[in-house]
Specification:
four-stranded parallel sheet, single chain, 13 helices, 10 strands, alpha/beta, 370 residues, 3 domains, 14% strand, globular, Rossmann fold
């Protein structure tokens, strides 16, 4: 939207700047005699029709203190300004809109999904606006704040054990699929395998990054869970410049890195881990391994410590996977030169993790702090 574009991508330092902007904008070229104060009055009355229109056009912020060891310029695409405080709002809305168009989601329908929290929030907010009930299934690894927030927007939430096989009847994959089959008028969002996920990022996040960096981006760093973000954004950026390196952040206990490097699905790589939002014990259809140049594994402790450092050294309050992504950039510092521009995506907000990463007692209990 015009309003969104002004605030997100245009620096207007003064009233004179606002007037100059409006006078030189195509929307006002036919009316050069319009009084500046009239323009300001009209500008102040602009509003969005609903909260879904505020999704996207998120800011990009240079990282300073936490990147002292990195020669390159590192900037974060901060997705916390989306209404659900995460990047998942983008694909959640796209999944719903595509389902509406195909007839898979009918008026008064029920959205069912397995979620670590953020996709559920995006689906729930869209459900509130569009009139859909939501049933979500999550794991006992996820923070209490995530469950509380889903319930705050009216969702029904089922919690399943983490430490079971994906095809176990108790796994959150199996339970969400079963609920979608048993619930009348239900639509299964299926974020791992629904390709509307990565298409959303190909059409929105990717073009935004390209425009915001004026095409100067050399590396993209993204935490990988469903794979929609890295695959959609990576595809778009490589179409603009095939030399751009797409770097995925994985965690110990996940199969992505080894599968990417060897083509082997090694179950010995799979074991419980603390990090939320990235890594998998399945191969989602949304992960396009051909787009990804390298996977970097980050330890639970390092991700959590960097999550806290981002808050205390940059004033950026973001989630667990964002800490892992920042730690990964530092681990990969030898891949970057002084002329490089590295974009790292910060997926979600710190409010989902207050009881864990930002709780000293929990951090000490887990032996992540002394």
């Amino acid at each position: 939207m015009f309003f969104n574009r002004i605030f997100s991508q245009t620096l207007i330092p003064s009233i004179e700047g606002i007037c100059t902007f409006f006078y030189t904008s195509s929307s006002f070229l036919d009316n050069k005699e319009t009084n500046c104060w009239e323009l300001l009055t009209n500008f102040a009355l602009m509003y969005f029709n609903n909260i879904l229109e505020t999704i996207g056009n998120t800011p990009m912020v240079k990282l300073n203190r936490v990147m002292r060891e990195v020669e390159a310029t590192v900037v974060a695409k901060v997705e916390t300004t989306n209404p659900g405080n995460s990047i998942k709002d983008r694909m959640a809305l796209r999944i719903i809109e595509d389902a509406e168009k195909s007839g898979a989601l009918k008026p008064g329908g029920i959205i069912v999904e397995g979620t670590s929290g953020n996709t559920g929030m995006g689906l729930a907010i869209a459900g509130v606006v569009k009139g859909y009930k939501c049933i979500f299934v999550t794991t006992d690894k996820q923070s209490k704040e995530k469950v509380d927030m889903l319930q705050a927007v009216g969702a029904e939430v089922h919690v399943c054990p983490t430490d079971v096989e994906p095809d176990d009847a108790q796994s959150y994959y199996s339970v969400s699929k079963r609920l979608s089959e048993e619930t009348p008028n239900a639509f299964y969002a299926n974020q791992y395998h629904n390709l509307s996920n990565r298409q959303a990022h190909y059409e929105s996040t990717g073009p935004e990054i390209w425009e915001q960096t004026e095409g100067k981006i050399t590396h993209l760093v993204v935490g990988v869970g469903t794979g929609g973000t890295i695959s959609g954004v990576g595809k778009y950026l490589k179409e603009q410049n095939p030399e751009i390196k797409i770097l995925g952040i994985d965690t110990y206990g996940s199969i992505f890195k080894k599968y990417h490097e060897t083509g082997e699905f090694d179950k010995n790589e799979i074991y419980p881990y603390i990090t939320e939002g990235i890594g998998e014990d399945i191969l989602p259809e949304n992960v396009d391994f051909s787009v990804i140049d390298h996977f970097e594994k980050v330890r639970d402790k390092d991700g959590l410590i960097f999550q806290r450092r981002l808050a205390r050294e940059e004033g950026i309050l973001v989630g667990n996977s964002c800490g892992s992504a920042a730690a990964g950039v530092v681990q990969m510092k030898n891949r970057f030169g002084p002329k490089d521009l590295v974009v790292v995506i910060f997926h979600d907000h710190a409010s989902r993790y207050v009881g864990k990463a930002f709780n000293d007692q929990w951090m000490k209990k887990m032996n992540f702090l002394k």
